From TrEMBL:
The modification N6-(pyridoxal phosphate)lysine is found at K254. Pyridoxal 5'-phosphate binds at G107, A108, F140, D225, E226, V227, Q228, T283. May also have succinyldiaminopimelate aminotransferase activity, thus carrying out the corresponding step in lysine biosynthesis. PROSITE patterns: AA_TRANSFER_CLASS_3. GO terms for cellular component: cytoplasm. It comes from Parashewanella spongiae. This is Acetylornithine aminotransferase. The keyword Ubl conjugation does not apply. It comes from the Bacteria. It is an enzyme of class 2 (transferase).
Length: 405
């Protein structure tokens, strides 16, 4: 099965806004953790659509759910609810700290909802002066104007005029900085339990404990952005489950639809009541098609078998990368959790993560980067072990080429 050869990479430059610079490879078909391009070349997928394709490509349970729902109902609007949405919300609340769910279509939208909620909660309970949101340097929370401003990378938020105010960025994992900044004007602290785009940086347990303690002391809410870490990626359903603390609000997207756009914001009854009728909404949020797929995703992912399998695959990936590194000495450390893994380039290869990505594609491996110094791997949670082995062999050949120059 080959692609339409008139639809080339050059066509992208003709018809698409130039905010992306995609690779020359145009995939046309995927199955499991393998993908084929227009010319029939096969790739092993260690990228997973940036931690989205949690069950690989064309997983039978997801294809089945989509086909079945596709012949029933696609869209109703939120003037009415629907069965798949009620079922998915029931699963999410039963499996987490949360009592209430708001559905959206993307991580940015879930985070936008969370940020509006924490501001409204503070306004209703404490008054207008309690509006400060504390976030962290190198964070990534989406591309809407509010979320990109809360994200800690000025390059993404500068150049669009005046930004939303009362947002303070602190160094990640710096308890002293947080203690110095937080006050009774703080309405929320927002963070990723593992910073994804920022370089696969784990939150220290002591830091998370301080976030919770200081938030409680100052009547602020804790928001966990689990867009990338959620839905089994770390070996628990959500990454907060590895920790001693529980957030007040959690956002989830990416893997929740296994490739179909869906997101959710989870919170408690007491906090949720501040988004009363008319305060927020989404045309497509909670549509039956997306929720049917989300239900199928959770039925597969939220099982002992899948979650234990993530931990086993993590060890294989870590061992394989360590063996490659013993030979070629390119990484200073391998960090992350579950199947969200970052290889941090050492002094000799600073700024060259893209070189490893390009070399990998040439060897038939799809991988990612997380900034200029980190090679990122986010494969399917159920990637066959044979594909891990073969993918690592391809990566080793790519590393050898970069090292050889």
């Amino acid at each position: 099965m080959s692609g339409n050869m008139n639809l080339t990479r050059a066509k992208f430059d003709d018809v698409m806004v130039p905010n992306y610079a995609p690779s020359a490879v145009i995939p046309v078909r995927g199955e499991g953790s393998r993908v084929w391009d227009q010319k029939g070349k096969e790739f092993i997928d260690f990228a997973g659509g940036i931690a989205v394709n949690c069950l690989g490509h064309c997983h039978p349970a997801l294809v089945g759910a989509l086909k079945k729902q596709g012949e029933k109902l696609w869209h109703l609007s939120n003037v009415m609810t629907n069965e798949p949405a009620l079922e998915l919300a029931t699963k999410l609340t039963a499996s987490t700290f949360a009592d209430k769910v708001y559905f959206a279509n993307s991580g940015a939208e879930a985070n936008e909802a969370a940020l509006k909620l924490v501001r409204r909660y503070a306004l209703d309970n404490h008054g207008a002066e309690k509006d400060q949101i504390i976030a962290f340097e190198k964070a990534f929370h989406g591309r809407t104007f509010f979320t990109v401003t809360v994200g800690g990378q000025a390059a993404y938020s500068d150049g669009f005029g005046p930004k939303p105010q009362s947002i303070k960025h602190l160094p990640f994992n710096d308890i002293a900085a947080l203690e110095a900044e937080i006050s009774d004007k703080t309405c929320a602290i927002m963070l990723e339990p593992i910073q994804g785009e920022g370089g696969i940086i784990d939150a220290d347990p002591e830091f998370l404990a301080a976030v919770r303690r200081l938030a409680d002391k100052h009547n602020a809410l804790v928001v966990f952005d689990e867009v990338q870490t959620g839905v089994g990626r770390t070996g628990e359903l959500y990454a907060y489950m590895h920790t001693e603390i529980v957030p007040d609000v959690l956002t989830t997207a990416k893997a929740l639809g296994g490739g179909f756009p869906i997101a959710a914001m989870l919170t408690t009854t007491d906090i949720a009541k501040h988004l009363k009728i008319g305060t927020h909404g989404s045309t497509y949020g909670g549509n039956p098609l997306a929720c049917a797929v989300g239900n199928a995703v959770l039925d597969v992912v939220n099982t002992e078998e899948t979650l234990q399998g993530v931990k086993r695959r993590e060890q294989m990936l870590r061992d394989g990368l360590a063996a490659i590194n013993d030979k070629y000495q390119v990484f200073s450390e391998i960090r992350g959790k579950g199947l969200l893994i970052g290889g941090v380039l050492n002094e000799k290869y600073q700024g060259r993560s893209r070189d490893f990505l390009v070399a990998s594609v040439a060897e038939g491996l799809m991988s990612l980067i997380a900034g200029a110094n980190v090679v990122r791997f986010t494969p399917s949670l159920v990637i066959p072990e044979a594909d891990i082995i073969e993918g690592l062999e391809r990566f080793e050949r790519a590393v050898a080429k970069v090292v050889a120059g």
